[in-house]
Amino acid sequence: MSADEIRGEAHGTAPVPLSVLDLVTVGAGRTASDALRTSVAISRLAESRGYHRYWVAEHHSMPGVASSSPAVILAHLAAHTERIRLGSGGVMLPNHAPLVIAEQFGTLEAMAPGRVDLGLGRAPGTDGATAAALRRTERLNEGADDFPQQLAELTRFLDDDFPDGHPYGRIHAVPGPVQATSPGGVQSPHRPPIWLLGSSGFSARLAGVLGLPFAFAHHFSAQNTVPALDLYRESFRPSEVLDAPYALIGVAALAADEEREARRQVLAAALNMVRLRSGRPGLVPTPEEAEAYDFSPMEREFVTSWNADVVHGTPDEVRAGLDDLQKRTGADELMITSNAHSGDIRLRSYELIADAYGLPGGPGSA
After folding, report:
1. Other C-beta atoms within 10 Å of 306: how many?
2. How confident is the model at residue 124 (pLDDT cuts 50, 70, 90)?
3. Which of 72, 171, 218, 311 could form a disulfide with 249 if both were Cys (CB 3.0 to 4.6 A apart)?
4. Cβ 199 vs Cβ 220: under 8 Å
């Protein structure tokens, strides 16, 4: 593993590499199969247009988000792509045994050598009751508090380097490095790079201290973005992985051919968030349903605040908004999540953003 497997390359006029974060959203009147077909279409578009990586986020018990099993989805995407990096944005480590994650991502690495990322978070990716069902305990804080220890254990399994006398010293994550030390064994030189994800300062500091790349969830914690990135950079210590900090931010952005259409789409996505935050998660509503919805004053205030952090509009407006955000944060990479009711609208958004930056494979390309 090297920094070359972490750092991306900017294309066209983009100030930094552009990537995709997929929640596999399911709109009203659509199925999870429809959403997964959209994910395949977006991943192939992203690959052809020069987006650097494609990550899938772990969520649970949300009807409008079909990404409960990132490793399964990534295996499916690996079969439909050839070059783009694929990864988790992220796997919520406290929900899983570290050995299981090492086995899953070792398998993914065998499927797509040299292009798998392992992004890890410490939140449950769901509500408390669902987290308790996932973890088989109601002492949820223990999982979050033990995150550094879980991370260390997972890293040991990925590298197959538990010290002598360790209880897990004779346990091996397969596929993995142990295969290279077996008689006649040959093993891939690649190991999925670990990224830490966060929406506050905890993972920012930990990523810095460990010299790991860091991904911040600007798309739902915008007020914490700059402080967290500052903390990451201040805490950073060079490591075998990176000699300098590398931070990407997740950005909610939606481009449409017309500004009004972009506003309609983000209103529907915001209504979905209103319902989620009030304990009524559901499928992503249509723009027509959102326009007809009677928002309370408190809900309207939430929508205004939420959409203020969603970069949306025409392609030129979105490009300007992304450029400004990159300048304000100093992010090394922008990971775009385009949430909308329709898969076609999401696909079109990524295409329009690529066109706005003159990414490869667009109009006028050789």
Report:
1. 19
2. low
3. 218
4. yes
